[in-house]
Each structure stands twice: as structure tokens, then as C-alpha cells.
Amino acid sequence: MFEARLAKGAIFKKILEAVKDLLTEASWDCGDMGITLQAMDNAHVSLVSLNLRSDGFDKYRCDRNLTMGMNLGSMSKILKCAGNDDIVTIRAQDNPDTVTFVFESENGEKQSDYEMKLMSLDLEHLQIPETEYACVVKMPAGEFARICRDLSQFGDSIVISCSKQGVKFSASGDIGSANVKLAQSSNVDKEEEAVTIEMQEPVSFTYACRYLNFFTKATPLSAQVKLSMSPEYPLMVEYAIDDIGQIRYFLAPKIEDDDN
Amino acid sequence: MCMYQFLVAVRQEGANLTSADGETTSHLMGMFYRTIRMVDNGIKPCYVFDGKPPEMKGGELAKRAERREEAQKALSQAEEQGNQQDIDKFSRRLVKVTKTHVDECKQLLKLMGIPFVEAPCEAEAQCAALVKAGKVYGTATEDMDALTFGSNVLLRHMTFSEARKMPIKEFHLSNVLAETGLSQQEFIDLCILMGCDYCDSIRGIGPKRAIELIQKHRSIETILQHLDKNKYTVPEEWQFSEARRLFVEPEVADPADIELKWVEPDEDGLVAFMCGDKGFNEERIRNGAKKLSKARNTTTQGRLDSFFKVLPNPNAGKRKGYPVRPADDVSFPVFALAVAVPSAIY
């Protein structure tokens, strides 16, 4: 028997919004520690790694480890039926063919349940080693989303350069070029609006706008976003999810051809 | 691969496209636009031309020649009867790629800055060698031999026209082997059983029987020991071991000596060749050259698989059938394309 109950059901709604455009289907791995999801997009360019710790749930029970393959489009449709203040419970048997979502209104007067068929997925799992990144930028999530949206009007890719002075986003294309510079914030009164940079060495990499714009769909989950970059390594974009876990996106950089 | 296709497909009212003095140009047009389409989509193609066919292929080639003769006869018959549809049908079957066609294609590729390799023998074998050496990501061909030769990634329908809406299919040899539970050696034997270009197969054994037999007995030799000779006729002097040798150690040029270089296209050279000699529209050719040049200067998208290791899947082998996944976004873009060249020109 598996059961996970989250009073802030809106979190599930936001998580689905944050992944459903990038992934069509994914496996949810449930175990003692909590729920994890790891999946690459079709082109194997980016990867989503979601982690929800069991202690972050209001009630969590998982008798046996189980993997539930779900169509994220269908799952999103179901979660759209939940109200923003609803309590969401996910429930499944030990060897399930289906999963049940239960939505309860705050005052307990309305309860609805939705059952969804599971699918058997054969997905590749990647091992993501823990690394020290050369540059870690923390900034307001809304600001990052705005920059990605604005710059994607100029070209297919965005160059993110990070130095002691600050972090610079640039793009260029047929209509011209665009540069956005952010300096480290001097006042740290409002943690949520701060821009902080931890840097070992300056870096500059090119990333596809298309994917960054998929990642920023997670903006409603968190006030701050963390961008981590290293040479010869994918970009990591991380959004914290309250005190229950985090969603991480990895994106392979665009590579300059050697013979150019 | 594609030259026959172009000569067959690119034609009007039963005749090939020609330049002012009557030379065929269908193949150049096909090669030019299709290459641009690939480059435009971020693929770096490398063409591999067939060399001389191995002697073992004689039987298969004789069969093809026979079919040609039949088509020739049918064509004259159709002409007598004046049946336009049949004339079209049979003249398509008579299309022949000549040495001139091949040379012109090579010249065109050179001007476009696209590398090509002349295989000493079978193009698919050379492609597989390039894949194994890590020079290219995969082989694009319609010929399943590429897997038998050990090319880990095979793409089919790579250059089909967009109008046909045919998705590109990606085959991974490692997955095929894992799911069938065969080694490469056994896989080769299986391919020979199912029929290859080099020798006959056993009559009455189709794909289904073949895979059962291989999974049970693991090699053709053991299968022959156990096979009911009254039920199935094994070809006389069956040269399966020779065929096997051709798959295991085919004649290929050492990939270490091959340098693949994509260079800036020679726009004026292209215009001179395609417009001056062959009568193509100058504006279109210049546009094409610009596309090639633009694509060269954009960066390529990396893939996550090259950074993170894929963990072994505990569920592998549970699923039935061959793992085929549509490769809608192929993002590691270097491919070897096998180009079939008829044996007659050697």
C-alpha cells in the first residue's frame, strides 16, 4: 500500500505544470525516503530530477518500493480538477495497475477521487554525480523567467557568462542583440530578491532558449532559482519546493564545433 | 543508398531531369537538396560510397541482373502495347547509376564542403567501422546489414521526403542484442539464417524459426547438427562460414586514417558547376550555399548522455520485440550515409 497526503495540494499542481511540457511520460519512484522522478526529454538534451522527501508530506506510507509510469498529460488533466486549497492524497496498491488521486476541500465538505491507468515504461536512468560547480548563481526565479522569455525573441540560444562583477545573459540573432547584466545585490535584507554569486572561476556557456523556457515553468514553485555551471558539465537549474524537496533540471550546453 | 532513389523519383513524364545537352541531373538535385536539409537540421553528414562488391555477392548480383532483364522485356512489351503506366513502371526498374553519376556526386559534395569516404568494399561495413571508431554517431541506411556489421546505431528513413511523414527510426544494436539475448556472433548467424546478400538461406526457415533456432543452439553449426534434413533443405555447399567471415572482418579502410572535415562550401564553385554545366537555377543554388554556410556557424546542441552515465536498467529484457524509438530530435549529429554504387562501374 502506498499513500502520500499533502495538505498544500497546489504543490502537485505546480509540479505538473513544471514538467508536463518537457516530458510526455515519466516514472514516479516511491520508496521509504519519498518520491523521486527522473526523466530525460525525447532528444536526451535535458533531464528533470524531482525529489519529494517523505517527511515533507502530512502523511506518508510506502510498504514496498514501487515505480509508477504515468502519462504526465493525463496526470496534469486530473490535477487541474483539484482546487488550489485542496488536500491531495495519492494512493496505490502494492502492485498497481492504477493510481488514485483524492482531492478534499479545506472544510472537508467535498471529496473527489480520480483513478488513472498506469503505464509500463522502459526509461533509461542516468547517474548524476554530486559535483562542485565552478559558478553558482542564486537569483529571483521570476527575474530569470523574464530574462529567458525576453532574450528568446532574439535568438535560439542564450549565453550565460558569470564573473566577479556579476552574471550576464546575452542573445543575438537576425534582429539584433540583447544583453542583460545582474550585479550581486548589496543589501541582503530581502533574501528572496537577492542575487548572489559563488564563484571559483569565471565561466561562459551557450544554452538553448527552448529548454530554458521549459525550465522556467517551475517558477511558481519557488521565489529563488539556483543556476550551477561548470566547464564540461551540464547546467543545473534548481527550484526548491517549500520544505519538501526540490526540482532540478539539467541541460547539456551547446558546443562550438572544433573545426570552425 | 540514395542515388537510385533520386534517379527513380526525380523525373518528369518518364524521363530524368536533364541539362540542356541531355545529361541526367536528377541525382545532383536530390543530393544537393537532401544534404542541405540534413545540414539545416543540425546533422553533419558524411557520405560513404560503396566500393567493389565482395565476390560472395555474385549470386545476389546475378539475381538482380536477371530481374533487370525481365523488366527490360516487360518494358518493350509495354511499349508495344502503348501502356503508359507500365512503361513508367518498368523504366523505373531499369534505372542505372553510372560512374559519371557517382563522380558528379562526389564533385558536388566536395564543393559543398561535405566529407565523403570511398569504402574499399561494402559501404555499410565501412560505416560500421566509422561508428565503432567513434568518428560518427550512427549509420543512416535502409540496409539492415549495418547492424550485422556491428554499427551500434542505425537510422532508417533518414532522408525520406517530408511529404511522406515517415518518422526516422533509430535502432540500437546493443538493445537488440540485450533483448534477444544474443551475442554479436550469434546475431550474425541469425542474419545469415534469415537471408543475407552473400549466400542462400535454408528453405522453410523464416525469421521466426531462425530466432528460435539461434536462441536454442547458438550457432549455425549446431543448428545443422540438430536440423531435420528431410524437412528442410540445406543449400549444397552452403558457404555460411564464409559469409560470416565477411560480416566479422569485412574489408574496410582503417578509420584511424580517415579524417572527416566539414569545410566552408565553395559558393562560386557550386554555381559554376550546378548552373554553368548543369543548368540549375542560380538563385536557388546560392540560397542553398548560404544555408550550408549558416549551419556551419551555429553551435550544436550537446546531449546529456555524453555527460552522465546510463545506469543499467533492471527491467531490461522484460519487454518483447525490438526496441525501436522514434528519433524525432537527433541531436548528436554526425552520421555516415551509405551510398550504394553499382558493381558494373568497377
TrEMBL record, chain A:
Annotated Proliferating cell nuclear antigen PCNA N-terminal domain residues: 1-124
Entry keyword DNA-binding: yes
Q: Which SUPFAM superfamilies match?
A: DNA clamp
Q: Which GO terms describe its molecular function?
A: DNA binding; DNA polymerase processivity factor activity
For biological process, the GO terms are: leading strand elongation; mismatch repair; regulation of DNA replication; response to hydrogen peroxide; response to methyl methanesulfonate; translesion synthesis
Record carries keyword Nucleus: yes
Q: What is its main location?
A: nucleus
Question: Could you state one GO cellular component term attached to this entry?
Answer: PCNA complex
Tell me where it resides.
Answer: Nucleus
Q: Which residues form the Proliferating cell nuclear antigen PCNA C-terminal domain?
A: 128-254
The record ties this protein, via Pfam families, to: PCNA_C, PCNA_N
- Keywords, comma-separated and alphabetical: DNA replication, DNA-binding, Nucleus
Q: Which NCBIfam families match?
A: pcna (TIGR00590)
Q: Which family does it belong to?
A: Belongs to the PCNA family.
Known partners and oligomeric status: Homotrimer. Forms a complex with activator 1 heteropentamer in the presence of ATP.
What is the purpose of this protein? This protein is an auxiliary protein of DNA polymerase delta and is involved in the control of eukaryotic DNA replication by increasing the polymerase's processivity during elongation of the leading strand.
According to UniProt, the name of this protein is DNA sliding clamp PCNA
Automatic annotation (TrEMBL), chain B:
Name all XPG N-terminal domain ranges.
Answer: 1-71
Q: Write down the InterPro entries for this protein, in alphabetical order.
A: 5-3_exonuclease_C_sf (IPR036279), Flap_endonuc (IPR023426), HhH2 (IPR008918), PIN-like_dom_sf (IPR029060), XPG-I_dom (IPR006086), XPG/Rad2 (IPR006084), XPG_CS (IPR019974), XPG_DNA_repair_N (IPR006085)
Q: Where in the cell is it found?
A: Mitochondrion; Nucleus, Nucleolus; Nucleus, Nucleoplasm
GO MF terms here are: 5'-3' exonuclease activity; 5'-flap endonuclease activity; DNA binding; magnesium ion binding; manganese ion binding; RNA-DNA hybrid ribonuclease activity
Q: What is any one of the record's Gene Ontology cellular component terms?
A: nucleoplasm
Co-factor: note: Binds 2 magnesium ions per subunit. They probably participate in the reaction catalyzed by the enzyme. May bind an additional third magnesium ion after substrate binding.
Keywords in alphabetical order, please.
Answer: Coiled coil, DNA damage, DNA repair, DNA replication, Endonuclease, Exonuclease, Hydrolase, Magnesium, Metal-binding, Mitochondrion, Nuclease, Nucleus, Phosphoprotein
XPG-I domain segment(s): 110-182
Which is a Pfam family this sequence falls into?
XPG_I
Q: DNA-binding: is it a keyword of this entry?
A: no
The cofactor(s) it depends on are: Mg(2+)
Q: What is its main location?
A: mitochondrion
The record's top EC class is: hydrolase
Coiled coil, from the record: 61-88
Record's Gene3D superfamilies? 5' to 3' exonuclease, C-terminal subdomain, 5'-nuclease
For this protein, the Enzyme Commission number is: 3.1.-.-
GO BP: base-excision repair; DNA replication, removal of RNA primer
Cross-referenced HAMAP family: Fen
Its biological purpose is as follows: Structure-specific nuclease with 5'-flap endonuclease and 5'-3' exonuclease activities involved in DNA replication and repair. During DNA replication, cleaves the 5'-overhanging flap structure that is generated by displacement synthesis when DNA polymerase encounters the 5'-end of a downstream Okazaki fragment. It enters the flap from the 5'-end and then tracks to cleave the flap base, leaving a nick for ligation. Also involved in the long patch base excision repair (LP-BER) pathway, by cleaving within the apurinic/apyrimidinic (AP) site-terminated flap.
What protein family is recorded?
Belongs to the XPG/RAD2 endonuclease family. FEN1 subfamily.
This one is known as: Flap endonuclease 1
**Natural source organism:** Amphibalanus amphitrite (Striped barnacle)
Taxonomic classification, please?
Eukaryota, Metazoa, Ecdysozoa, Arthropoda, Crustacea
